[in-house]
Amino acid sequence: MGVIETAIDTIKQMIISGELRPGQKLPVEKDLAEQLGVARNTLREAVRALIAMRVLQTRQGDGTYVTSLSPGLLLGGMSFVADIHLEAGAGEFLHVRRILEAEATALAATRFPDAGLARLGELLDRAESVAARNPIDHGKLVALDQDFHALIASHCGNAVLAAVIQNMSGRTVRARIWRSMSDPEAVQRTLNEHRAVHRALLARDAERARIHAAAHVLGVEESLNDSRSTAGDGDE
Predict the structure, then answer these.
(1) Which string of DSSP letters, residue by residue, matches 49-61?
(2) What separation, in Å, do the N-terminal and C-terminal C-alpha atoms of the chain show?
(3) What per-residue confidence (pLDDT) applies to 83?
(4) What confidence category does residue 169 fall into, taking pLDDT thresholds of 50, 70 and 90?
(5) For the segment 127-166, what is each residue's pLDDT rounded down to a tens digit?
(6) Contact 168, 181 (CB under 8 A)
């Protein structure tokens, strides 16, 4: 392991041990370099790497601080990992989303505040209004779809699970847009699936919520698979 990697690991250990806490300012460069036993240039490279990881942040004219270290912040890079896999990885990400969102939705069934459930219903009302227009604004529908899923995940009671779902959902936007644009019945089917999830949440029925959430993501997954099969047939 190189000196930069060692310095990175040492700073991480200082955070894990509580020597450095979220929001705390790092010691001045000279003192921290001496504490770590590395050159100041090495420390600068380590700090740059930790900033890229969102572990540290620089405040102009004030110094370097430990970030909030929230799961949503630290897992933000997952969306980039998803994006660089392009279409080849969409099915795999949807498969993982089906597993995770089903669990998150079941957990949310007993945790959702009444106001949150009302907000969820408002999102569905807005989506149905958009779907009734001609032409349909598919971009707005997808945005409302994302808000719907994000709101459910935010009430699952597990910040890490919610962050993972949120950072994976961006990767599947294209699949959802394709589904709404290529299948004439997909828009209404999606709205019906969302309503089924909402009814299960209103009833505080965790298992029914789990089943409907899994079925909804599976529908997107199967639409993506069907589109690939059709494209493959056309190439032959």
Answers:
(1) HHHHTTSEEEETT
(2) 50
(3) 56
(4) low
(5) 999 999 988 888 898 889 989 999 999 999 998 899 888 8
(6) no
Instruction: Determine contact, residues 89/80, Cβ cutoff 8 Å.
Output: no
**Amino acid present at 231:** A
Q: Give the whole-angstrom CA distance, residue 60 versus residue 234.
A: 56
List the domain boundaries for the chain: 3-68, 74-235
**Residue 21: left if φ>0, alpha if ψ -120 to 50, beta else—which one?**
beta
As given in the structure block, the two tokens for residue 210 are: 């789990």
Class of the CATH-defined domain 3-68: mainly alpha
CATH architecture of 74-235: Up-down Bundle (1.20)
**pTM, 2 dp:** 0.70
What string of DSSP letters covers 143-186? HHHHHHHHHHHHTSS-HHHHHHHHHHHGGGHHHHHHHHHH-TTH
Cα dihedral 21, 24, 26, 31, rounded to 10, equals: -80
Question: The tokens of 201 are what?
Answer: 């949440």
193-204 pLDDT tens trace: 999 999 999 999
160 forms beta bridges with none
From CA 236, how far away is CA 232, in angstroms rounded? 7
Contacts of 201 (CB under 8 A, 6+ apart): 105, 108, 109, 112, 117, 120, 152, 209
Give the tens place of pLDDT for each residue, 109-129. Answer: 999 999 999 999 999 999 999
